[in-house]
């Protein structure tokens, strides 16, 4: 990436330097923790359910409770980032995630597990808001989409790492509920290993500079000029002055955004805020996290062995990583909106096919079986669904949320949109075990309907932001 971006220069003299790519990559590691922390529960679901004797509703809440913490973290991340800075807030998120990893791995009851998962969720929610904001604010407009997509790449790599480590730990122990090192069951180690990336992230963000927009908002103009000079390679003093002045005008440095600044004539909020909220909600209502939180249990429930179910889940996460790389290559060429349209259409078709396949299942409960050829068709459709999501709604929503709001309200508007996303994620994740008891065909048919509605929403309401300076975003 660095060989191509280092030659890109915009009209303000901003260079997409190697340094800005490395800084964006370091910040995006918060996305790695985001993906790891939320997906690591996948391999532990059955073991936790059996260990604590949980029913469908209880395991649904145990899996999804972290998302409530994420909504809280996302809600307060914007004000915290505005007050204390983006870098300091990222460090706090890393601390919460490290504490959660230790606590979740050493719990003695389901109540303690819920508590520590919520703590980790707070860290995830903070990272989900601050990292894309920070990346958007230090990136030149002409490559902002690609750098913003690093967040999603980090998320899918985190998901892959979590599922791969789950599979390896379960395989080493002979099952997720079997004892491993120091007499601790494999499912406990699935949580404990997250301490390593959490501490790594916290260490790396110590070395990244503060956002120039935050520095300008605090009146620290000299520091802001230094960051712009070093990070974006801006050597022209006139261009530096113009850029700082543009930021000053758009931010109104003396003013701290409040929730009331989001008010508008469209059902109480500005139209751009509603668009951000609905982007977040639809990203979750298409059911993607059912794949990443429950896929091992899902494939096991329809006749695959535990080992094969773990393997299938890892393969799906690899597909997710590869297609995210494709999205990064396309986002600043094709644009955000066309990719969302392609993704919505593809997901509607593949989810509909999955619903049809699961309607062919026989038996119920532990004896549920998906006969050939429907088991393989469902497997292909599930991976095709992940391809369409990873190409579009996965990375594009985070790119858009990081750049679509006017500077004056960006942090607080992103907090609102991200909180809505986590609440939507909680609704989908906690409801899936109950929906699955009604029927997997019903569950995936519902997600297909939401994918179809999302297609209409994108065509009608979403505005393309490719190549537009953050200072020129309108409400």
UniProtKB/TrEMBL annotation:
Domain called Major facilitator superfamily (MFS) profile: residue spans: 23-466
Matching SUPFAM superfamilies: MFS general substrate transporter
Keywords: Membrane, Transmembrane, Transmembrane helix, Transport
Topology in membrane: Multi-pass membrane protein
Pfam family membership, one: Sugar_tr
Main location as per UniProt: membrane
InterPro entries reported for this sequence: MFS_dom, MFS_sugar_transport-like, MFS_Sugar_Transporter, MFS_trans_sf, Sugar/inositol_transpt, Sugar_transporter_CS
Subcellular location: Membrane
Keyword Isomerase carried by entry: no
NCBIfam families: SP (TIGR00879)
Similarity comment text for this entry: Belongs to the major facilitator superfamily. Sugar transporter (TC 2.A.1.1) family.
The protein's name: Sugar porter family MFS transporter
Gene source species: Dyella halodurans
């Amino acid at each position: 990436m660095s060989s191509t971006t280092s030659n890109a220069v915009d009209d303000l003299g901003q260079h997409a330097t190697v340094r800005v790519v490395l800084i964006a990559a370091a910040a995006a590691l918060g996305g790695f923790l985001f993906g790891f922390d939320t997906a690591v529960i996948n391999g532990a679901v059955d073991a936790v359910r059996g260990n604590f004797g949980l029913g469908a509703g209880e395991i649904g809440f145990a899996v999804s409770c972290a998302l409530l913490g994420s909504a809280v973290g996302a809600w307060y991340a914007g004000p915290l980032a505005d007050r204390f800075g983006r870098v300091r807030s990222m460090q706090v998120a890393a601390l919460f995630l490290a504490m959660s990893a230790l606590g979740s791995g050493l719990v003695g009851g389901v109540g303690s597990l819920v508590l520590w998962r919520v703590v980790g969720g707070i860290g995830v929610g903070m990272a989900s808001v601050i990292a894309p904001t920070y990346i958007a604010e230090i990136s030149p407009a002409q490559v902002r989409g690609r750098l913003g997509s690093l967040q999603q790449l980090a998320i899918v790599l985190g998901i892959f790492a979590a599922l791969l480590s789950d599979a390896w730990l379960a395989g080493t122990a002979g099952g997720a509920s079997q004892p491993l090192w120091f007499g601790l069951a494999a499912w406990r180690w699935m949580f404990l290993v997250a301490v390593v990336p959490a501490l790594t992230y916290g260490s790396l963000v110590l070395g990244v500079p503060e956002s120039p927009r935050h520095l300008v908002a605090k009146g620290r103009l000299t520091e802001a000029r230094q960051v712009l000079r070093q990070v974006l390679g801006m050597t022209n003093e006139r261009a530096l002055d113009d850029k700082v002045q543009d930021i000053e005008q758009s931010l109104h440095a003396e003013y701290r955004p409040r929730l009331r600044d989001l008010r508008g004539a469209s059902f109480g909020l500005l139209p751009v805020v509603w668009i951000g909220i609905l982007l977040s909600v639809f990203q979750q209502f298409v059911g993607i996290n059912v794949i990443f939180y429950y896929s091992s249990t899902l494939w096991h429930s329809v006749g695959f062995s535990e080992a094969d179910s773990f393997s299938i889940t890892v393969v799906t996460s690899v597909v997710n990583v590869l297609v995210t790389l494709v999205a990064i290559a396309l986002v600043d060429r094709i644009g955000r909106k066309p990719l969302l349209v392609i993704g919505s259409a593809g997901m509607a078709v593949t989810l509909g096919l999955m619903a049809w396949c699961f309607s062919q299942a026989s038996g119920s409960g532990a004896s549920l079986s998906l006969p050939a050829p429907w088991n393989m068709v469902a497997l292909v459709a599930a991976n095709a669904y992940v391809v369409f999501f990873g190409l579009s709604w996965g990375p594009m929503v985070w790119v858009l949320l990081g750049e679509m709001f006017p500077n004056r309200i960006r942090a607080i508007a992103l907090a609102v949109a991200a909180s809505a996303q986590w609440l939507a994620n909680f609704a989908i994740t906690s409801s899936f075990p109950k929906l699955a008891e009604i029927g997997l065909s019903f569950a995936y048919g519902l997600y297909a309907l939401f994918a179809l509605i999302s297609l209409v929403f994108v065509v009608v309401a979403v505005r393309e932001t490719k190549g537009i300076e953050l200072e020129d975003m309108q409400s």
